[in-house]
Amino acid sequence: MAEPTPREAALTRLNATLKSNNPIIGAGAGIGLSAKSIAAGSADMLILYNSGRYRMAGRGSLAGLMPYGNANDVVVDMSSEILPLIHSMKSPPLMLAGVCASDPFRDIERFLHELKERGFDGVQNFPTVGLIDGSFRANLEETGMGYDCEIELVRQARKLGLLTTPYVFNPSEARSMTEAGADVLVAHMGLTTSGTIGAKTGKSLEQCVGDVDEIVEAARNVRREVLVLCHGGPIARPEDARFILERCAVDGFYGASSMERLPAESAIEGVTREFKGIKLGRWGCG
């Protein structure tokens, strides 16, 4: 198993990307094939979490928040499939694990050690209660299964020398995660709103500009050097990411559905239609 990249070395790599005037690109992968393709495309970070498996099985990403399996067990299983593939490549991206921080049957500190021993370079808070609102979210917070668990996850991972790239959904969470030592904040704009199984309800790109700016300002008021990426909602294609990157002081883009589900949907459907569009020649039957 490959040795994980030390946190400081990982940050040096990411900052070198910025110094070359290129955005930091992170991507979620649910299967080995998409992981290899993303790595071949020179992504800086590759994240494995349970929604990736559901997404590439044709289900919506929010399946990762439903009781369809233990999220942390799914990530360990995915790592056996994907980590050997990526670590065998010449210049692999940084490998991150999505961790369900509120798992009541998991010693999170011990689990972080296990992930590091498996060769992960860092972690992300997924599944995250940040995608939940209303009374259900309030009840999770009141009963010890809320976002504070995810903040503590980042604090513990930082102590272990793991790169931390948490999702944040508002300025308050951005401040808390930065104070906990997060290295890369991912400003989450909601479930991706494109493709055959994407959400239909969401923000506009113009709304995202203001929301991302507020998150960036809150985080950098705590620590100037914290990195911030944008993700989700209507930011689904390269032109959408360009729209945000040209208007916000962010350091890059993190894609999940946009990096594997949407490309797979369009490419597979397109090539199938091309094959179906072939006309039989003179020797065709009928």
Q: In terms of topology, how is this protein built?
A:
Elements: H1 7-19, E1 24-28, H2 32-40, E2 45-48, H3 50-55, H4 71-87, E3 94-99, H5 108-118, E4 122-125, H6 134-142, H7 147-159, E5 163-164, E6 167-168, H8 171-179, E7 184-188, H9 205-222, E8 227-231, H10 238-245, E9 252-255, H11 257-276
Parallel strand pairs: 1-2, 1-9, 2-3, 3-4, 4-5, 6-7, 7-8, 8-9
Task: Explain the overall architecture.
The protein is α/β, with parallel strands linked by helices and 286 residues long. 47% of the residues lie in helices and 13% in strands. It is built from 11 helices and 9 strands. It has helices at 7-19, 32-40, 50-55, 71-87, 108-118, 134-142, 147-159, 171-179, 205-222, 238-245, 257-276; strands spanning 24-28, 45-48, 94-99, 122-125, 163-164, 167-168, 184-188, 227-231, 252-255. The longest helix has 20 residues, at 257-276. The model has no long low-confidence stretch (mean pLDDT 93).
The number of helical segments is: 11
Largest sheet: 9 strands, parallel
Could you tell me the strand content as a percent range? 5-15%
Total DSSP E strands: 9
**Which secondary-structure class do the elements indicate?**
alpha/beta
Average pLDDT reading: 93
| Low-confidence sequence ranges | none
Within the largest sheet, what's the order of strands?
A: 5-4-3-2-1-9-8-7-6
Shape: globular
Helix content, binned percent: 40-55%
Rg over CA atoms, rounded to whole Å, is 19 Å
What is the rounded distance between the termini? 57 Å
Task: Summarize the helix and strand pattern as letters.
Answer: HEHEHHEHEHHEEHEHEHEH
